Amino acid sequence: MPEGYQAHQMDTCLKLIFSEIKNPVVILIDEAGGITNNDYRNAFFGQIRAISNQKGTETPGSLLRRLNFVFAGSFIPELLVNDNNSPFNVCETVYTEDLTLDEAISLQSGIEGDENTDYVRQAFELVGGHPYLLQFILDRVSSVSELDKGAVYDEAVTLLKNGHNNHFDSVFSRII
């Protein structure tokens, strides 16, 4: 560890982790509203804000100049942190649209052909065009034999209704 290293200094940790990478670095933070402890949340977001403030004094090409944080999920930034340490007042908000039924059918057809169109329609009726919820249900249905699809669809719906799913693992398993 470098001299003066402190575990609570996010910029120091990031420089250690990404020291060999010369490309832009993006850190995705999903479900930022899930940090319920005020002290942890404010410290975490305060460090992200401090990194943003440091960018202006860093040399071109340095890690902090190439580093961006992306927050995904549904949350209201003003409810997460206080104004003094908020990373959200130096960011750009991007709102996404839900899928239409035709888009959902097209996506599923591109992966599997037209065999699960009925399940796409059922899932769309249940969750609307929410991309993750549709993906959660349809990913499970597409991974089993035709005989098991109905039972797996029902199981996926039950898991969602009970709040049990592997959203984070699912997103990154596709990327990795």
Tell me the layout of helices and strands.
Layout: H1 10-17, E1 25-30, H2 38-54, H3 63-66, E2 67-72, H4 77-80, H5 101-112, H6 117-127, H7 131-142, H8 149-161, H9 167-175
Parallel strand pairs: 1-2
Q: Any overview of this molecule?
A:
- The chain has 176 residues and is mostly helical.
- It is built from nine helices and two strands, in the order H-E-H-H-E-H-H-H-H-H-H.
- The longest helix is centred in the N-terminal third of the chain and has 17 residues, at 38-54.
Q: Extract low-pLDDT stretches.
A: none
Biggest sheet, strands in spatial order?
1-2
Helix content: 40-55%
Please state roughly what percent of the residues sit in beta strands, choosing from under 5%, 5-15%, 15-25%, 25-35%, 35-45% or over 45%.
Answer: 5-15%
